[in-house]
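User: Can you help me understand a structure? I only have the sequence.
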Amino acid sequence: MLGSSAVAFMTILALRDYQRDAVEAVEAAWRGGMRRPAVVLPTGAGKTVVFAHLVARWLAANPGRRAVVLAHRTELVEQATAKLRTVAPDLKVGIVKAERNHTLAPIVVASVATLASERRRRQLLNVGLVVVDECHHATARTYIEVLTHFGCLGGQEGAVAVGFTATMSRGDGTALGSVWQDVVYTRSIAEMISGGYLVRPYGKRVKVDDLHLDKVRRSRGDYSEGALGEALEQSMAPEAAAKAYAEHAGLGNALLRPGLLFAPTVSSATAFCDAFRDAGFSTGLVHGEQPTAERRRELDKLTAGETQVMCNCMVLTEGTDLPLISAVVVARPTTHAGLYVQMVGRGLRPYPGKLDALVLDIVGASQRHALTSQVDLFGEQDPDEPGDDAESADDDAELDEGELTLGAGLGIDDPSWVNGPLVSEDVDLFHGSHSAWLRTRGGTWFLPAGERYVAIVPAPTGGYDVVAMHRYVVGQSRWVMRDVSDLSYAMAWAEGDVTPAEQLTARRERSWRARGPSQAQRSLAARYGIMIHEGMLSGEVSGLISVAMATARIDSRMSLYLRSRT
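Assistant: Let's start by predicting it. Here is the structure, written out as tokens:
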């Protein structure tokens, strides 16, 4: 491949260090014979800058050839084209989508739906490079047809390819490794925040007293999208979200964070929109059933400051460039970690005057998922479950529906939310620990450590105290650290207090956690009235037992503790 000096004549946005590393990693993979490398960069990392450089360097080294950039939605085609022209004004970029057919441009940004037509594919000649944006969609039938047509999936004679995504994983378990041979470069959200390229998020989980999703109908092994929407609409979740937003989304001086809310259905997104309006917010609504021009008008109102909160039904998870957003409301249940990261990532881009981002979790998604890198090339699909190649699949649809994470530690036999008034509480969005953190029924984070619990309790200052106590002996307690300002730092202090011997029981990844429950566990669970359901693993049962025991030990002492700190 060509060195950077070969494109020095071209006006092109300079690369950051990690972007240069990504470009070099892809080029090295191509030189080594790899046909389809992939790059995983979080939202806001500038993947368009990376593939603009890649394309410019590749075209300079391969005169007379053409590069194609694939995107799966109309907005993403327009956005990729605009960004390429901004990043590299000298590049000649055309569009192949619907009635537009700029097939002679050196760089063609094309809609996958348009290239599903063999006639349209055949009009694109001399294609030697295919760039796939949001490449976790590439196992879909139309992507496979396009990549096969240009020779990317064949031998060494066809085009080379490269994929870019923020989350190299899929909700349906499809093996992405069938398309992408290896992830040759990745960068985590935490690294981007540390480098100052993304703002730091902080999380608030909102408990809704009447949101009960344990009996929601399932479809194809997952929660039904429609049933999820109905459960949200029939609960106080919309009103709770608006109330929590009013409480936590202020910036001072009567200013309010501009926000983005994700809901599972158009109807539920409308219900949230109405609740926010009733609470006095200026709100908008966008969804996939709207004409493109109408969606664009609504988003223009948001960027102009006319709309404070934009409610959407899953059309803004990918490729959306709204850096002014500094609050994300997650009202869309999902078991797909990649989708969760995409939703939260909408609020992490830097913007003038923006110091951080608020994440309001209405449905418990942050309890299961973390803002860690999502890289899974191999998948876990059940061979009996259809993937994107099923006749019913929509190649241009959003990611597959997921299910709600029901909160561990909120109850033993009742997996629904705790009854009571609206409560918002801090949540660690990174789950950076490898330790088996749990929560009591009263909501206290704790770490089981041998014969001790190391717990994180609220401090009168508004921060957190870390306290270690014996599991069984009252009076054997001590402070680990007081007045810690951040939940993740409090967790770090707690983990640092765990001895190497205690870590044997505190580590999440111990193999016994993935086995079936032992007879001793079953007996102890019965003593505490814990129901063991079919398919539960030893680690899950252990967690429920620990919650029951710690609830009795920790929650019963909370009132005494709080009195001692005042």
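Now, to help you interpret it: Residues 1-8, 378-421 have pLDDT under 50 and may be disordered. Residues 439-564 form one domain. Let me know which part you'd like to focus on.
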